[in-house]
Amino acid sequence: xxIIQARNYKELSKISSEIILEEIKxxxxxxxxxxxxxxxxxxxxxxxNAYKNKKVDFSKINTFNLDEFYPIKSTNxxxxxxxxxxxxxxxxxxxxxxxxxxxxxxxxxxKESKDYEAKIKKHPIDxxxxxxxxNGHIGFNEPNTPPNSKTxxxxxxxxxxxxxxxxxxxxxxxxxxxxxxxGKKKAKIIKDLMNSKPNKKLPASFxxxxxxxxxxxxxxxxxxx
Length: 225
Ligand code: GLP
Hints:
- The chain is an alpha/beta fold and 225 residues long.
- Helices cover 29% and strands 19% of the residues.
- It is built from 6 helices and 10 strands.
- It has helices at 9-26, 41-52, 80-87, 109-122, 168-172, 187-195; strands spanning 2-6, 31-34, 62-65, 67-70, 99-100, 127-130, 152-155, 162-165, 176-181, 213-218.
- The strands form 2 sheets. A 7-stranded parallel β-sheet has the order 1-10-9-6-2-3-5, sandwiched between helices.
- The longest helix has 18 residues, at 9-26.
- It is globular, with a radius of gyration of 16 Å.
- The mean pLDDT is 98.
């Protein structure tokens, strides 16, 4: 486990986007796993800028997203599909055929989950970007999700509703993991994460079993360490 402490959100985002761009340089047909939420937004802006400045070509990259609300229409502004197209895909040259998203409109969430696992097996994720929830969730793997979980439909604990999410074992199969945490409100969960062995109460703690995990925090998220 490697921990990088950035001074602030801007620096955290600079470091994370540089890591992603470096990986793409080394392997132009990389498979990338994306997270949503507020934390990676500036990272994605940096990727868009790199594309606009002709520093990167995303056309050979396969992508998978961690999770999606269920049920939800992809046109709904709250959907992660909308988020990805709005913040990254529409502003770059990722190819539609290479973009894989969990379909929040499906009538068959179990089949959707199985198909998604099969697609990931075909294009194993080289680099998975992750955020962390205030309760330690990764993707939508809430506390008490088993570590051997695969992509599945889950009940959300912090809000009413359901979601499709890669499982913890799906995430751990990625070659490299990059977890981002920014801001004072993440300080407590980052402290808990640093101080705990892998356990079900804190799903992100299972990431510690991975051999190539990098965590980037800013000073605020690290303020209780
Ligand atoms: C959300 C998502 C996660 C995300 C996390 C943190 O609920 N399901 O994939 O990483 O919570 O979000 P934020 O970056 O906004 O704090």
